[in-house]
Specification:
This protein is α+β, with helices and mostly antiparallel strands and 179 residues long. It is 59% helix and 12% strand. The protein is elongated.
């Protein structure tokens, strides 16, 4: 019981940078994020040593996080080896921007989907293995399912539209309360 409480306690107070990393890519990303927080300006090799992960996994995670602007990399010459290496640093101040950008992307996708649902009439045969079909296509197929050849009937997508509206409102409210 005590172990569970300790795990929950550590998860509850985990750094937001580490949480976001974990949401993006799971445990490997968590390990790299923690290593970046523990060692500022770490090289790929130093992170691999600290995490126990293979160097190719470390690089994949680092490049992904760099692409998402969550970390920064500075190219420096290694004095001992004579070649260039990257030193990586967490950009904890970018976590909120990353979250805001993700919310905006999701909101945009939900709004486009709602627009699609509102502007279309759908038909469906009722078979789980088949997909719903827009009116124009249903007419061309003489209201016969292209997959199972069953009759296509108009379906009510009001629940889908209502769910989309609810999610849009939820995200919009969340975004406006953060400002």
């Amino acid at each position: 019981m005590r172990i569970c409480i300790n795990i929950m306690h550590s998860l509850e107070y985990e750094d937001s940078f580490v949480k976001i990393a974990g949401l993006i890519g799971g445990e490997e990303y968590n390990k790299v994020a923690r290593a970046l927080l523990n060692t500022e300006d770490a090289t790929d090799e130093e992170i691999a040593s600290a995490t126990g992960l293979r160097i190719n996994i470390i690089r994949k995670v680092l490049y992904d996080m760099f692409g998402k602007a969550l970390i920064t990399g500075v190219r420096v010459k290694d004095e001992k080896k004579g070649w260039f290496v990257y030193r990586w640093r967490a950009k904890q101040d970018q976590v909120d921007n990353f979250i805001d950008n993700q919310k905006k992307k999701i909101l945009d996708r939900l709004q486009k989907r709602l627009e699609y649902e509102e502007s279309s009439e759908f038909y469906y045969c009722g078979n789980q293995d088949c997909h719903r079909i827009k009116f124009d296509s249903a007419v061309e197929m003489f209201f016969k399912c292209p997959n199972c050849k069953g009759p296509l009937n108009m379906i009510d997508n009001d629940r889908v539209k209502e769910t989309l509206r609810y999610k849009i409102k939820q995200i919009t409210t969340d975004m406006s309360s953060e400002k």
